[in-house]
Amino acid sequence: MTAEKEISVLLSEARNLINILPAPVATMLVYHRIEDGSAPSLPDSVLLTEFQEQMRYITEEGYSPMTVRELAALVEAGEEPPEKSVVVTFDDGYLDTYTHAFPELDFFRMPATVFLATGHIGASTPFPWLGGNGGKPMDWQQVSKLHRAGIEIASHTYSHPFTPNLTKRELCLELERSKGKIEEKLGAQVHSLALPYSFPLRHPRWPSFKARLREALNANGYVCCCTMQRGHISPKDDVFALRRIPVGRDDDLPLFRAKLEGCFAWTAPLQAFYQRFLKSYPTP
Fold this sequence. Notes:
Elements: H1 2-17, E1 26-31, E2 34-35, E3 46-47, H2 48-60, E4 64-66, H3 68-77, E5 85-92, H4 95-107, E6 113-116, H5 140-148, E7 152-155, H6 168-186, E8 192-194, H7 209-219, E9 224-226, E10 245-246, H8 253-260, H9 268-278
Parallel strand pairs: 1-5, 1-10, 2-3, 4-5, 5-6, 6-7, 8-9
């Protein structure tokens, strides 16, 4: 991460030095845990103090925050997003999204989208995929409070599986159960999905996955899908393959600024190469 950070910050400084205007794209940020401690336990965790600083920066620098559904509507219409558009998203449904992130979102009046692994919401045990570092999930009462405050509540599947390994029926059931559970609990329609884990939609091991995914999304009434593929979003993008920029424990303010300005997107080809040729994945 050190080289990625140094190069991204350098690009940001050069961009601001010669006053390059930003392209008409939107940045979708993805957070996981927001921790209130001496140091984040995982690479994709963020300290509460840094999260506060990041939300303040978005506000004071005149960014245009919106939800995933609002951005997807612009993409569907082929419209350019407002200047300096940003979307704040949270994956999984950790308790600290409610206890730590929500008060800051409320203070800064920041729109956001929270993607829930719905089969785990309300459990008394931590999310299982992180082992001993797994944070506990919210309960439905807390989710309801987020919803009533205007935060978009969306799907992160039901059981948080590695979706490329699922059959067409299994994938459809994951999306159906997750969406149905949220709509049952909140009485509000679900439009958006975020896929668990980081992987390319096209890979020799799962050549038909993207087609299966699109079919399952359409069959269950989803209008957009977010991935963990790095990059920004333009009106020409596929609304079922929206890219996001990760935020983690190495993100001091200069790196965070670089990510918002588009100076981290150069790492997308590196991510694609690693995922295509070097990364190992769960077997079916």
